[in-house]
Amino acid sequence: MEQPASVNADPAHHSGSNDRRTKWRNWTGFWLLGLCNNFAYVVMLSAAHDILKKQESENATAPTPASVGSNFQGGNSSNSGRYDCNPVSTAAVLLADILPTLVIKLFAPFVIHKLPYGYRVLFCTIMAATSFLFVSLSPAVWISILGVIFASISSGLGELSFLSLTVFFSRDVLGGWGSGTGGAGVAGALLYSLFTQVGLSPQVTLLIMLVVPFAMLMTYFILLVPPPSLPQWRSVRAEYTAVGSEERRRLMDASGEEEQAKPTSEDGSTGPLTFSEKLHVIKGLLKFVFPLGVVYFAEYFINQGLMELLYFPNIFLTHAEQYRWYQTLYQVGVLVSRSSLCCVKIRKLWALSLLQVVNAVLLLLAVRYQFFPNLWLVFAIVLYEGLLGGAAYVNTFFFISKETEERQREFAMAAASVGDSLGIALAGLVSFFVHRYFCSL
């Protein structure tokens, strides 16, 4: 007599179980990739005040090793002015951290498809590890700045590569990536603040953080379950084959989002995008890129132009400690909002831009007229600033992924990543002049 088939023997059951396991591994993998990719970038911004303190201590007359260590740990500046300014704005570190990223994001999307993803990840790992070594072991501030540049190269190439990589997976990995990049902010700023607060030197702290680039390597090559269409070690554009296209449509359907079947462009074209087609895609991306750039201009004008000047003397935190905790709270806000994609989606990106500009104007006036009564109010505003910035980032890329044709999606995700970097770079330039003005008062 025929025996009833076991539930566990059901191929559909096994297939569903494997799909869920794969989906969970990929979401977790992109969360960790976001964390590791942005970690060095965040740590360098959190260490900006200390990096410049090191320069100040080295420029002092005949400094002793003890005095150098004390200054690098972040004691208050000897500047007796109204704002307790560093000789150079922390925008110097911001520019070193963002300009290489900006250059990469401007030009790489047009040629980066020729370099397979596996080689990109290896290069990013080497650059990130080198950045920690240079900044922690450098005998001069210019070598520290060079280390920051390496971190920028790693972060910029990694961001546009991993955003492009999401098109080979179900769309929900975008939520994992966004949340992970927010987690990098909290982990980087908080761990740096905690390690230095308990007495570890910034040098030792940065050496401990060398584990992060290698965690990115392990996550990509071991945890992720890539589809066969992914160009891992060869630049063959397999994803444009019928098999690759069908597989990606199946993965998109599995994400639970409504997806129109678009195996080709609207005019029936197939294969890699031409240069003129890429320019056409960029034109269509402006409605996303411009609001994102405005949001990031306003928030990094706050972070690197105003935060150092929002100083409350004679309280339980030194100037350096206040700066570190501003950065930490900002990153907490970013983490919360970048993790919100599963709960809320915001299509009106201009509203976020406007609110962030209001934040920047308010804090600029607060620096000029010093009408804030205490540190806690600044903490609350900085947290809110992070919420707006994180929401703008994750919603921008979600709607680009949702509204862009399948054939254009990989390029669009990489090209749009220039928006935040352009805003950050412009904010760094403006911050120089603002810093000089206030410090001259």
TrEMBL record:
Oxidoreductase among keywords: no
Q: Does the keyword Plastid apply?
A: no
Q: Which compartments does it reside in? A: Endomembrane system; Lysosome membrane
Give membrane topology per the record: Multi-pass membrane protein
Extent of Basic and acidic residues compositional bias: 11-20
Please list the GO biological process terms of this entry: lysosome organization; regulation of intracellular pH
Provide the alphabetized UniProt keywords: Lysosome, Membrane, Transmembrane, Transmembrane helix, Transport
Region (Disordered), start-end ranges: 1-20, 247-270
One Pfam match, given by its short name, reads CLN3
Segments traversing the membrane: 30-48, 88-108, 141-162, 174-194, 206-225, 349-369, 375-399, 411-434
Query: Among the entry's GO cellular component annotations, what is one?
Result: endomembrane system
The record's SUPFAM superfamilies line, in alphabetical order, gives: MFS general substrate transporter
Record-linked InterPro entries: Battenin_disease_Cln3, Battenin_disease_Cln3_subgr, MFS_trans_sf
Q: Indicate the principal place this protein occupies in or around the cell.
A: membrane
Q: Which family does it belong to?
A: Belongs to the battenin family.
> What name appears for this protein in its UniProt entry?
Battenin
